[in-house]
Amino acid sequence: MTGADYFVPFRTKLRAMRSEPFGADPAGARMQRILSSPNFADGVFQNPLGARTRPSGSTLEFARIYFQKEQRLRRAPAGTVPVHATTLADLAAPPATGLRLTWMGHSSVLAEIDGRRVLFDPVWGERCSPFPFAGPKRLHPVPVPLATLGPVDVVVISHDHYDHLDLPTIRALAGTDTVFAVPLGVGAHLERWGVAPDRLRELDWNETAKVNGISLTATPARHFCGRGLRNNQHTLWASWAVSGPEHRIYHSGDTGYFPGFRDIGAEHGPFDATMIQIGAYSEYWPDIHMTPAEGMRAHLDLQGGRPHGVMMPIHWGTFNLAPHAWAEPAEWTKDAAEEAEQPAAFPRPGEPFEPAGTLPVETWWRAVSAPMAAPQWRTATPDAVPGGAPVARRDLDVAGER
């Protein structure tokens, strides 16, 4: 060790030793952009509405519920998830209507919009974790190998959590010609993993990048960031509004409900389709993830307060990330959509569909779900689902409906 090395701050030394899955901290010109952002104050990025980013309530109570054997069984499918078998063949021909969505599981969606291909939050890894031996493991295989998916014009990242930003997936895509649209600060991770700076479009909220004739706007979300134990809020999180010459779509990323959805819709909508986070919710973190009822409310806000377009639920079914039953997000979203008279799509992982065509609405998850007794949303008040009415409480044995 030289004399100069001795005076290097300890935090800097730790950062240099940090393994690749943790990514990299913003620095230099990137950090200057962050410091000058209107959404950065008091040393951190700020939410559009105050949000608790750490679990509330009793940690011991949460641990008891989360690790109880019976509860663990409820949070996983009771059988093999029916992944769509002919994804690549179905994608071989262009969409007849100009817009097609393919849910690859969790928040990963391939959107074919007006002749361009946009890949949202691609996670092809086996675990959403910095470690290959620990962390939430995928509950179904990826529908298609990433290498066979074909050219992608833009990869869009909503934020840097492991279930949305996956090191092995980004490394594979770094070897292609795709452009990466990411929230401010997230580019530091991608550069460390081999993405050339000239292929990055790094945006603050309400900034827009144009790629091959489509516009991608980073819009506000209510969430948080971080890939390490210490969350310094130096990378931004975002939802995304994407528009082509003929179509408009929206991807929520991860977010709690907030009134800003109405502003996003007024500025960038209405949308032909929205991809809305409705899974991994909990009373322990109510501000940073939406329940299905809140997700439906967000969709309607984005559409000017009325049913319009198609809502596709995302962020469920692939990883076990919250205490709720595995199939609960789908069942609750189905009920919320019916109450709101809003068309919703429920594709199997890998099943392409066109929002202007026939929607996938089969309740496929019921064949592989454990029973769910007395769903909480069946006792909802009229305000729980926009335009809805209370529904009588009853047991929902989805396994019994096989």
Question: What's the topology here?
Answer:
Blueprint lengths: L2 H4 L3 H8 L10 H8 L4 E2 L2 E2 L13 H9 L1 H6 L12 H5 L7 E7 L2 E6 L2 E5 L33 E3 L10 H8 L4 E5 L3 H6 L7 E4 L4 E4 L2 E6 L19 E5 L4 E4 L8 H9 L4 E5 L14 H11 L7 E5 L13 H13 L11 E2 L49
Parallel strand pairs: 5-6, 6-7, 7-8, 12-13, 13-14
Antiparallel strand pairs: 1-2, 3-4, 3-15, 4-5, 9-10, 10-11, 11-12
What does this structure look like?
By secondary structure, the chain is of the alpha/beta class. Helices cover 22% and strands 16% of the residues. It is built from eleven helices and 15 strands. It has helices at 3-6, 10-17, 28-35, 59-67, 69-74, 87-91, 167-174, 187-192, 260-268, 292-302, 328-340, and strands spanning 40-41, 44-45, 99-105, 108-113, 116-120, 154-156, 179-183, 200-203, 208-211, 214-219, 239-243, 248-251, 273-277, 310-314, 352-353. Strand 1 (40-41) and strand 2 form a beta hairpin. The chain is globular and about 55 Å long. The model is unreliable at 1-8, 10-17 and 380-402 (pLDDT under 50).
